[in-house]
Specification:
The complex is a heterodimer of chains A (258) and B (65).
Chain A: E1 4-6, E2 9-11, E3 15-18, H1 25-35, E4 39-46, H2 53-63, E5 67-70, H3 78-92, E6 96-99, H4 112-124, E7 128-133, H5 137-145, E8 152-153, H6 167-176, E9 183-185, H7 191-199, E10 204-207, H8 209-212, H9 217-237
Parallel strand pairs in A: 3-4, 3-10, 4-5, 6-7, 7-8, 9-10
Antiparallel strand pairs in A: 1-2
Helix pairs in contact in A: 1-9, 3-4, 7-9
Chain B: E1 2-5, E2 8-11, H1 17-23, E3 32-35, E4 38-40, E5 55-63
Parallel strand pairs in B: 1-5
Antiparallel strand pairs in B: 1-2, 3-4, 3-5
The chains are: A alpha/beta (258), B mainly beta (65).
Chain lengths: 258, 65
């Protein structure tokens, strides 16, 4: 597969994988292996009293040798997101941050105003920001202007499994920012959705629910991995133009009985 | 003194952030910490002192999407 870089760092896979909602730690570990993901998203949360879940989880994740992308999931203001990002940098020793500023608890739609505000502050602090955003081109331009070098537009609302809700807008985004790494983040349900995104020219796909909540998360992880590779190869190879009328594939010249 | 630790009221003897982590059993755990909504970095935990009514957050790595 052709190389992909985020902020000058090469990543070995175009599948980014979330680590939440798996039936068990063992299934999570197997899904990571079968997906071949090189970049895993994680969060920061309060530990239950006397619990060791955080320590056990971190032992599993750090043992995979994969790169870590902490998130600010659940933050509803720029201030909360900035503080969470600063805490994440301290514990994960990375300046990469998946920036989420949620505008509505039901739709989980990004608050793009808070997002740009937080991205500006975090970029000024030296963070490498991966903003979870919409497919709005002006918001995208604002994010780039405040220091983001990657954009992560939604395909559909988080966890919805709908696929690419607005292919027109996403195609426009790809065309408008030809050299910016674009990652479809959220809303995919099946591997064909990921192949669709990659065929449109997106650079990578971030998955969580579609893998973790599948009947067989490990099998689905591999299914997505194959679809992402197929979609990328198709994009690079160049697809034919769709036509309304049939065009014979076998040569007409030399046809008998005419 | 009484603190709000992760949203719960706690009566603790610790006077610094480092002592608090020890008292609450977080030693040997990767944790991120904040005091009154401001980050307390690892390197500052020995010197940051706590006072009555402080709001403390102690966060650990967890699953995330």
């Amino acid at each position: 597969m052709d190389p992909l870089q985020f902020y000058g760092v090469s990543v070995a896979s175009r599948l980014l994988l979330g680590t939440a909602q798996y039936p068990s730690p063992a299934i999570l570990a197997d899904a990571i292996t079968r997906s071949d993901a090189d970049l895993l998203t994680v969060s920061l949360r309060r530990e239950s009293t006397g619990g060791t879940g955080g320590r056990d989880f971190w032992k599993l994740i750090s043992g995979t040798g994969r790169k870590i992308l902490p998130n600010t999931a659940g933050c509803h203001s720029a201030k909360e997101a900035i503080t969470t990002a600063e805490m994440a940098r301290d514990v994960f020793d990375t300046d990469w941050i998946k920036l989420e500023v949620i505008g509505n608890a039901d739709t989980l739609q990004p608050d793009v105003f808070g997002l740009v505000e937080a991205a500006r502050e975090l970029s000024a602090q030296g963070f490498k920001v991966f903003p979870y955003t919409t497919d709005d081109l002006i918001v995208a331009e604002k994010l780039l202007s405040v220091g983001c070098e990657v954009l992560m537009p939604w395909g559909a609302p988080i966890g919805s499994g709908k696929g690419l809700n607005n292919r027109f807008a996403l195609k426009a985004m790809r065309a408008h920012f030809p050299s910016v790494p674009l990652v479809i983040d959220a809303g995919l349900g099946v591997p064909s959705h990921a192949a669709d995104a990659m065929e449109l020219g997106f650079d990578a796909v971030l998955l969580n629910t579609a893998v973790a909540k599948a009947g067989d998360p490990v099998g689905m992880a591999e299914g997505f991995a194959l679809a992402i590779k197929a979609g990328r190869l198709a994009y690079l190879a160049g697809a034919i133009e769709a036509r309304d009328m049939a065009v014979p594939s076998t040569p007409v010249f030399g046809q008998p009985f005419v | 003194m009484r603190l709000m630790v992760n949203g719960n009221e706690s009566d603790v003897a610790a006077e610094t952030f480092a002592e608090l982590l020890l008292e609450l059993g977080y030693e040997d755990m990767p944790v991120a910490t904040a005091l009154n909504m401001s980050v307390v970095r690892k390197k500052d935990r020995e010197t940051v002192r706590l006072k009555e009514g402080d709001r403390v957050e102690i966060l650990v790595p967890m699953q995330g999407g």
